[in-house]
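User: Hi! Is it possible to get a structure for several chains at once, not just one? Here's what I have:
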Amino acid sequence: MGQAVIDSLTQSNQLGEVFNSQNEVTLEKLINSHAKTIIDCSIGEVFLKNLPLYLQAKQKVVVVATAWYDHLDEVKKLVDEHQGTLFWADNYSISMMVYKRLIEISCQMLKNNPEFDVYGLELHHTAKKDAPAGTTKQIGQLILNNFPAKKEILYDLPQGQITPETLHIASLRGGTDNIVHDFYFDSPDELIEIKHSAKSRKAFVTGILKATEFLNNQKPGVYTLKEMLAVKAAP
Amino acid sequence: MGQAVIDSLTQSNQLGEVFNSQNEVTLEKLINSHAKTIIDCSIGEVFLKNLPLYLQAKQKVVVVATAWYDHLDEVKKLVDEHQGTLFWADNYSISMMVYKRLIEISCQMLKNNPEFDVYGLELHHTAKKDAPAGTTKQIGQLILNNFPAKKEILYDLPQGQITPETLHIASLRGGTDNIVHDFYFDSPDELIEIKHSAKSRKAFVTGILKATEFLNNQKPGVYTLKEMLAVKAAP
Amino acid sequence: MGQAVIDSLTQSNQLGEVFNSQNEVTLEKLINSHAKTIIDCSIGEVFLKNLPLYLQAKQKVVVVATAWYDHLDEVKKLVDEHQGTLFWADNYSISMMVYKRLIEISCQMLKNNPEFDVYGLELHHTAKKDAPAGTTKQIGQLILNNFPAKKEILYDLPQGQITPETLHIASLRGGTDNIVHDFYFDSPDELIEIKHSAKSRKAFVTGILKATEFLNNQKPGVYTLKEMLAVKAAP
Amino acid sequence: MGQAVIDSLTQSNQLGEVFNSQNEVTLEKLINSHAKTIIDCSIGEVFLKNLPLYLQAKQKVVVVATAWYDHLDEVKKLVDEHQGTLFWADNYSISMMVYKRLIEISCQMLKNNPEFDVYGLELHHTAKKDAPAGTTKQIGQLILNNFPAKKEILYDLPQGQITPETLHIASLRGGTDNIVHDFYFDSPDELIEIKHSAKSRKAFVTGILKATEFLNNQKPGVYTLKEMLAVKAAP
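Assistant: Yes, the chains can be modeled jointly so their relative placement is included. Here is the combined structure:
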């Protein structure tokens, strides 16, 4: 992801300095770079080590690194103490953010209508190494949290009939570029299907660059895609 | 629709008196009926004439009749003056209500992302007499109101290339029981598809009976599916 | 299935005698029934026992009973010896027969184009007791027989990355009336999706009645849906 | 299309000489080029003028140029006289060829089952200049030729209810890269949906290069995708 972001910023002449293992971050380098915003595409551990430096250098931060979310509270506290400005997301696809919100709202609006069942499918290319996908598990948990009739998730092939309390989500592997989620709210008389396809990984780069631009106009604080799209949604 | 509602209420022993052209509504009959709620499946004109009687008889009202919406403000005022309780909807399908909300939210969250295009399709059975469907036109207007990049709707077959400001919605006719809406939020890198199917007309009867039940527990006021699903969605 | 066939024949005044455990089949009863065609909706064992009687009574036979296919060769021989006329199918849905043919042809036309991958999905209602469905396994085998790049079928949730030789078919359980098969022929540049939905069990009754009608005009022999649709396809 | 083919052949070191308006075709140049196969990506008029030269130079020909099909009989005769070898297609997508065959077979197998209706949709990107697409019109004609219940095609928005003899095909315009055809064979009890998506224009280049390779092993004659896929489909 990091290289794709670098390529995009280079193309638009917006790239300043690139830090990596050959050019490690120091406070002095950060200040000399005159960058307004740091895009951290490292890993969780490295991000947590460097965050104090970014904040001391008074630079805004867009966090692409993952695997640090257990430390979210500390990070928020640290950013607040420094009156810093930080953006984070576990998935920078704008439409996946919208998609999750659509699933959440459907659950909330339909949850007291027992004639509706919920179930879903994810389809990924054959090079995908795990099943179900990480994003799929997040969506499964989102449904469990918002649709009380479902008490547990089954990702495996059912052995016999499933119970009404089981949310079944199937994983399918095929093709070279599929990244698809497809969920159903289904009653005997009506059906809503909500489907998301990421056509390419560019979707994530676009989201990162939009987050960077969004931060330019924000007051100090910690932001996610939720705030970004909500602000954009205001009249 | 009226007969299907009558059949359903009869089956569940909930039906009181049936008024029609052979048994016209009067204040005296209404009071003697001891009905808690009137379900008005007439036409707009008849509903407007009888509403004052319903209100004087202190009965709650579920309005299935259409073609009176130009008088909505008067109706609201009249209900308020009598401290009455009234429910209305132009489409009693619960999932269509949810569907419209999903379209609205998608527009609001994506409207400032110019890489997203919006377009849609409706498919109805071959007995359908008009194209596009009335519900389709409502959805089209909803998008126009919430997605500023679209300035006009084209329902016809395009003559040449369409402009970016045109929201194209196609109508397809085929099969014996299709009632489908399918809308797309589509960028070069990502796609959200939101699809609704009414499998049978029972969806509308279910919604009417749920609205009737919902009114039982409401204070005086004018309600729509929006309030019903919002209340139901509360924890 | 038997009762639905009886209901349909009764409605159209085509039903003769009904045999069951209270009214067991004998040669005498068969001859006295003056029926032109026997529709056997029993089980494999009972069908095999009664077939000689049908043939001696010179009646045509439509076999709905299953679980006798290991004896197919004996059955064919017996029918030939009596110059009888028999129709059988493991699935009487006409469109499922067409569907299988479409899958077969796609395999045959694309099998030497290694850029194409094949994979599929079946979705059945939550009351379904087994996974994958029997019809799904037949389709899987059909692909294995006609698309040499695929050597084995995986119905389970993948553990890690699948091999190119694996045909992955996922099963999804949800809703009250879904009976869906959906298969994909997918290259990096092109995609064919072939989807079948049985909307109700009436599809099977329709197929049985059409087979009965079809037999009226056939010479002695053993027939399946393949011959029926081929004859119908002739100019 | 021509440039994309040139790029592909260049990458694989298979490209010989390129002829165009700066380097016009002559018999001498053709012979000196030592090319085995000419890929003609010009226009119909130019192709017809140059074909005799290709044949005299004893070179095989893959015709990508369109708008010469009124002269198909003459072309076939000329190729036969020279014992030449020529391949032509109006659409070089392999899967579109398969797709048309699937539509044709479905029509033939279902045409005597009056409970089945046929209808379809095409979706193309917003830069598309015409509606319906050329390929869509070919598919419409294919259905008319093979499904006798349909007597005429309606591409426009229906004015009132359509007749059972009308094949309705809708065109939808939206997004940046959609090239989709979606056709339905739909009865009250069963549904077959057959959908084709060209994900990119590379599909056409792939088909052209496969046709070129295919011609290497063919005896003199005139070939189309039909023969190519049939040969490939043989055991």
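The mean pLDDT of chain D is 92. The interface with chain C takes residues 93-99, 101-102, 105-106, 108-113, 115-116, 185, 187-200, 202-203, 206, 210, 229-230, 232-233 of chain D (CB under 8 Å).

User: Great, thank you!
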